[in-house]
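User: Sequence recovery, please. Input:
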């Protein structure tokens, strides 16, 4: 069975942690344990987040005043290569003899996507008010006060097509584990003549993973996060632990924007357009989720069903 497995940002860097090399290496080493268990039974294509890493690279890029900072598409590529290397190395150590390949992935977005008119994703370092006003004036950046200071906002257009998909298919067919589409991929536009140009944007990693899974005709999409299930309301004390649902059954429920919301949207999109099942759950439960014994399954059709007990422990053990 071919699985597209999306590692959430917390799997690579926990909130509050400094994104230095050894911290990330240690986190990835721990994250790979349940992924390696999946890889022993299934073909895997692995995607991952990159938010804190892109922010660090942006800060480092701005540190040398005499050299202009790199554009965001290049920073996306840098973070995709950096994290892909660490993930590839730890998988290789966990599964000796298994071939692993990391690919830089470009994802096509529409040049006229409405998201470019309303930048919404904060990236990069925190600036003072004076710095933010200067950058807005000199570079045309949209800036927002997030409480601690001002951060740059960039567009988050919808992914339309994964470029280089043939290479992914070839590697999977040859038995390789493939790491790709990190951070949602490198956003590019493609004009009428086929010229590809990088753009200043961030593509949502969950939606990019869902697109990749559909285009690869994967058997399932697995979105791994810090929560063991999808909760019907948030905070969890106000909701119930969902065991399975269809996109239609989830209509009317509201999920937290920027965290569980995009995952539920991506899972519903995959289930609707592929007529297959997407799963959302905790990284450590990965194998049990695929077996139907943990997490939340989002299927093309069916009623909304809950775990018998809403506690986290029972949500992991019951089904």
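Assistant: Recovered sequence (319 residues):
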């Amino acid at each position: 069975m071919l699985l597209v497995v999306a590692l959430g940002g917390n799997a690579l860097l926990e909130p509050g942690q400094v994104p230095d090399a050894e911290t990330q290496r240690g986190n990835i080493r721990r994250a790979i344990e349940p992924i390696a268990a999946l890889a022993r039974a299934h073909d895997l294509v692995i995607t991952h987040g990159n938010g804190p890493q892109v922010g660090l690279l942006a800060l480092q890029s701005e540190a040398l005043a005499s050299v202009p900072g790199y554009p965001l598409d290049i920073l996306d590529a840098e973070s995709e290569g950096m994290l892909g290397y660490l993930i590839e190395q730890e998988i290789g150590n966990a599964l000796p003899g298994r071939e692993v390949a990391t690919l830089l992935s470009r994802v096509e977005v529409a040049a006229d996507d409405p998201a470019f008119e309303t930048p919404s994703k904060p990236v990069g370092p925190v600036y003072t008010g004076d710095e933010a006003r200067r950058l807005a004036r000199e570079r045309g950046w949209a800036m927002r006060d997030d409480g601690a200071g001002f951060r740059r906002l960039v567009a988050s257009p919808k992914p339309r097509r994964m470029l280089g998909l043939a290479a992914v298919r070839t590697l999977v067919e040859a038995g390789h584990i493939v790491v790709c589409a990190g951070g949602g991929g490198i956003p590019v536009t493609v004009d009428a003549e086929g010229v590809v140009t990088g753009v200043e944007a961030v593509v949502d990693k969950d939606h990019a993973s869902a697109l990749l899974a559909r285009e690869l005709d994967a058997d399932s999409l697995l979105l791994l996060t810090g929560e063991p299930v999808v909760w019907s309301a948030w905070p969890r004390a106000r909701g119930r632990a969902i065991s399975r649902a269809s996109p239609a059954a989830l209509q009317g429920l509201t999920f937290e924007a920027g965290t569980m919301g995009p995952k539920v949207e991506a899972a519903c999109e995959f289930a609707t357009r592929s007529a297959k099942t997407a799963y959302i759950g905790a990284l450590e439960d990965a194998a049990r989720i695929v077996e139907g014994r943990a997490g939340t399954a989002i299927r093309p059709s069916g009623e909304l069903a809950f775990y018998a007990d809403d506690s986290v422990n029972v949500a992991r053990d019951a089904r």
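The radius of gyration is 20 Å.
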